[in-house]
Amino acid sequence: MLPTDPTKKLSFKRNISDGDLVIVYEKHDNMKAVKVCEKSVLENRFGIFKHADWIGKPYGCKVSSHKGGFVYLLAPTPELWTLVLSHRTQILYIADISFVVMYLELIPGCVVLESGTGSGSLTTSLSRAIAPTGHVHTFDFHEQRAAAAREDFERTGLSSLVTVGVRDIQGEGFPKDLTGLADAVFLDLPQPWLAIGSAGEMLKPDGVLCSFSPCIEQVQRSSETLASNFTDIRTFEVLLRTYEVREGKMDHCQTEGGTPGSRPCKRKHRTSEGSQWEQEHSGSSIVMARPSGEAKGHTGYLTFARLRCVA
């Protein structure tokens, strides 16, 4: 997320300054977060890049090295930060994150409670959804992990939107001073049913809870606990399938109705008219689409529930 411009609500800084965090894009599977320092340089296989040359340029620009190689300088959005952050724990990725943000009904000004913080992947997206007037209170029982997350939020300009606490939510529950203040609660815990009672106390009337669990047995036990004070209990498994779309050559078999990647076919006798058509189109380029070999399978289950309003 880019630092917000205080003079314009919901507008973002577009040019790179000394001290900013940028995402250096080399290729789709090779990116890194770099803090801009006027006297520093970046060295990689494409050459040497002076940070001083980046200052003043817009995010998204292409910059060249001393030997002609180039990289792109991208803004540290939550989507890109999820791909480059240090993995202190298993993280949620874009498919699950987008689903969570939508079903928690987050808008600017919302207050969100999260446990546990982990690597901060989801927290970054939550903070953008509730900015500039909302707040995320995130908790992790591991002190070093919480400290590392706090440093990351400072690097990405989110420290004013996120408060990181060290607390065992399963054993102690959420802090009592947050009772009745939360619009939404997110749980990523090994035994989420132990925290559901406390989460219900934190939520405003009609507030929404989400629990992420990798195993269906955790979902079943959580749902049993939710049934006492929550309604509209639903569980989803988000499966993402990506496709590669590329330009390729079409051979004579594909002109007869074959598909890219199909087995070779026998030649058929052709009329002179058919032979002329094949000569004109054989080897021509077509656009081919196929499932990506990097497609991810199961990550976990997302269980949502709404706090029951008591008359």
Report what the structure shows.
The chain folds into three domains: 21-76, Roll (Vcp-like ATPase, Chain A, domain 2), CATH 3.10.330; 80-239 and 297-307, Vaccinia Virus protein VP39 (Rossmann fold, 3-Layer(aba) Sandwich), CATH 3.40.50; 241-259 and 281-295, no CATH class. Helices cover 25% and strands 29% of the residues. The protein has nine helices and 15 strands. The protein has helices at residues 78-84, 94-103, 121-130, 143-155, 169-172, 193-202, 216-226, 252-255, 272-281, and strands spanning 21-27, 30-35, 41-44, 47-50, 61-64, 70-74, 111-115, 135-140, 162-166, 182-187, 203-213, 230-236, 243-249, 285-291, 301-307. It starts with 20 loop residues before the first strand and ends with a strand. Mean pLDDT is 86; it is low at 1-11.
What do we call the CATH homologous superfamily of the largest domain?
Answer: Vaccinia Virus protein VP39
Under CATH at level 1, the class of the largest domain stands as: Alpha Beta
Order of helices and strands: EEEEEEHHEHEHEHEHEHEEHHEE
Characterize the biggest β-sheet. Answer: 7 strands, mixed
Helix content: 25-40%
* Mean pLDDT reading: 86
Separation of termini?
Answer: 41 Å
Beta strands, count: 15
Strand order of the largest sheet: 9-8-7-10-11-15-12
Uncertain regions spanning at least 5 consecutive residues: 1-11
The CATH topology of the largest domain corresponds to Rossmann fold
Radius of gyration: 25 Å
Family: Belongs to the class I-like SAM-binding methyltransferase superfamily. TRM61 family.
Catalytic activity: adenosine(58) in tRNA + S-adenosyl-L-methionine = N(1)-methyladenosine(58) in tRNA + S-adenosyl-L-homocysteine + H(+)
Organism: Cynara cardunculus var. scolymus (Globe artichoke)
Binding site for S-adenosyl-L-methionine: 119-122, 140, 168, 188
